[in-house]
Amino acid sequence: MRPKLLDRVPPRFRAALLRLGFNFYPSYRATGGRVIHVSRDLTTIRVMLRHSWRTVNPAGALFGGALYAAADPMFAMLLALQLGDDVIVWDKAGQIRYRRPGRSHLFADFHVDAATVEAVRRELAEHGETERTFRAELRDRQGRVHVELDKTVYCATKAHYGDKLARLSG
């Protein structure tokens, strides 16, 4: 899941390249979401979902699918960026709770801190795989929560993942 192109770019440009990559990637662009900020240390992503003719339903509120899709890949991407190439990272599950209709642009911050990354690394060293559930909220400019989103991310070492696939297929 980790973009290989980032390894060939100097570290000071990686955040900008990741932001541009998301915003021009066709399947993400189609969600109506835009990555508006990536922290230099690649631990935080800020997303905006525009309220526009492409993202609203007939009642004038943001489509539920657009709300989910704009937020979908962020936690898995942040973990993949921090854990490196020797770890498999996949979205495993998601749950979305609608609190109020989105009738304006909405914003969400996704953050994976160093303590979480270290805990994942310890579990990977001990068990070969782990899962983590993260929460994000989509808010309007006044800070009102419109959507709560829980994402469960699966992580495994490549060796453990390969062994697991071999057991399942054999």
List the main descriptive attributes of the protein structure presented here.
170 residues; alpha+beta; Thiol Ester Dehydrase, Chain A; 3-stranded antiparallel β-sheet; 6 helices; globular; HotDog_dom_sf; DUF4442 domain-containing protein; DUF4442
Describe this structure in words.
This protein has one domain (4-169): Thiol Ester Dehydrase, Chain A, CATH 3.10.129. 36% of the residues lie in helices and 32% in strands. The chain is built from 6 helices and 6 strands; from the N terminus they run ααββααββαββα. It has helices at residues 11-24, 26-29, 64-71, 74-83, 114-127, 158-169; strands at residues 33-38, 44-49, 87-98, 106-111, 129-139, 145-157. The strands form 2 sheets. It has a 3-stranded antiparallel sheet. A 3-stranded antiparallel sheet has the order 3-6-5. β1 and β2 form a beta hairpin. This is DUF4442 domain-containing protein.
Put simply, the count of helices is 6
Overall pLDDT metric: 93
The name of the CATH topology is: Thiol Ester Dehydrase, Chain A
* CATH class descriptor name: Alpha Beta
Regarding quaternary structure, how should these chains be classified?
Answer: single chain
Second-tier CATH architecture: Roll
How is this fold's topology laid out?
Elements: H1 11-24, H2 26-29, E1 33-38, E2 44-49, H3 64-71, H4 74-83, E3 87-98, E4 106-111, H5 114-127, E5 129-139, E6 145-157, H6 158-169
Antiparallel strand pairs: 1-2, 2-4, 3-6, 5-6
